[in-house]
Amino acid sequence: MANLSQLMENEVFMAFASYTTIVLSKMMFMSTATAFYRLTRKVFANPEDCAGFGKGENAKKYLRTDDRVERVRRAHLNDLENIVPFLGIGLLYSLSGPDLSTAILHFRLFVGARIYHTIAYLTPLPQPNRALAFFIGYGVTLSMAYRLLKSKLYL
Amino acid sequence: MANLSQLMENEVFMAFASYTTIVLSKMMFMSTATAFYRLTRKVFANPEDCAGFGKGENAKKYLRTDDRVERVRRAHLNDLENIVPFLGIGLLYSLSGPDLSTAILHFRLFVGARIYHTIAYLTPLPQPNRALAFFIGYGVTLSMAYRLLKSKLYL
Amino acid sequence: MANLSQLMENEVFMAFASYTTIVLSKMMFMSTATAFYRLTRKVFANPEDCAGFGKGENAKKYLRTDDRVERVRRAHLNDLENIVPFLGIGLLYSLSGPDLSTAILHFRLFVGARIYHTIAYLTPLPQPNRALAFFIGYGVTLSMAYRLLKSKLYL
User: Fold this and answer.
1) Residue C68 half-sphere exposure toward CB, CA atoms < 13 A
2) Residue C69: which of C46, C45, C48, C52 has the closest Cα?
3) What is the distance between the alpha carbons of residues C20 and A96, in angstroms, rounded to a whole number?
């Protein structure tokens, strides 16, 4: 396992691993938030989920949508749409030998922006808080993509 | 390509590659399941998709939603929300030099839980079957994230 | 960083990095397209997003859905559902030592099919344009998965 241990001794790669794990754990927290709002507000998407709250027609009234639940679900989907490109592009960028401080700046900005995006979405904060958070994360990913394609393009 | 071949000779990495390929293929099957229900139940989201079933206003009646199709779509989205963190955290965890049997236990539990989640969602089985499957997969991913951050944190 | 630089000198891996960066950037473009249609058509999902267009009840009329916006969102979700398996399976496939020309054929077909899928979805082109684009990308990913499991299965 000689080479693997060398990979994990690379500082850029270790930083990428740490920030990625944090931002993915944050994204996983959205599932718990959805479950929390579904249970406390009794808002369900599946008949089997509300079977415990009543029988037959009585349970069906819980099959509804709710602003709060839909808001968390939109925040979750936005996370997916933005963290997947970060995951792919960031991994390849980390392997392309970038400068350590530049790489860490990218990772910190992205993770900070996504955490702020979640806060802005769930509070909710007035715009342009959420838009700004979105565009910072978006810009960071595009900046890494540009760096990758400029230095390593092979088609 | 000396190092690449060494990477794929690493047993943890090979196990990760195998289980990931299986769980991603399972997720891809959800697209086929959605297409199957859309076609057999004639339930479409786009006007161009049902053009073959009638002309003009006659085709528009197929632009509707259906419980069965929505159920498959929710199962698919839940897969995405959970397999993306597994993909990222699991890859980095595999590279961090974990014990082989511990790593394989994580991968097996995750893949088994996600397959059971799909069965529980599509049958559907009564709760808490699906919730249990969800939390096993969730816990496995968090356990790998914890191991990674504990051993390799670099911020 | 000896090994990392060797990884990025591997031609298959460099090609994977280039094509993945392109297809992920294309997927990120879908967010901009959604924002563009939301702003030009004044169709919003969150009250705070349309606060600039009027006060109180007057702003609430912009909380609606729109065919065009929903179409872009479906195209975006379809991208996610298909690019995530490509990302995971393609990365592992690239590391499994495939033939360079075979690998590049896979990557080109996938990226071309996904770009064509977006064009077919957003124009929209009549079926089976979009279905064909979908199945080419789907088949490419399954072909890489088959190659991986055949050569490197380790359960």
Assistant:
1) 13
2) C45
3) 14
Chain A nearest-CA residue for C103: A155
Per-residue pLDDT reduced to its tens digit, C64-104: 888 888 899 999 999 999 999 999 999 989 888 888 999 99
Task: Please classify residue C58 by burial: count the beta carbons closer than 10 Å to its beta carbon, then call 0-12 exposed, 13-18 middle and 19+ buried.
Answer: exposed
Contacts of A39 (CB under 8 A, 6+ apart): none
What residues of chain A score a pLDDT lower than 70?
1-7, 56
Check if the beta carbon of residue B105 is closer than 8 Å to that of residue B136: no
Q: Which CATH architecture has domain A4-39+67-152?
A: Up-down Bundle (1.20)
What's the burial of B25, exposed, middle or buried (CB within 10 Å: 0-12/13-18/19+)? Answer: middle
Per DSSP, the residues of A129-146 read: HHHHHHHHHHHHHHHHHH
CB contact (8 A) between residue C20 and residue A92: yes
Is the separation of the CB atoms in B152 and B96 below 8 Å?
A: yes
Chain A hits for C77, CB-CB cut-off 8 Å, are 77
CA distance C65 to C76: 16
Inspect the interface and report whether the beta carbons of C154 and B5 lie closer than 8 Å: no
* Extents of the domains making up chain C: 4-39+67-152
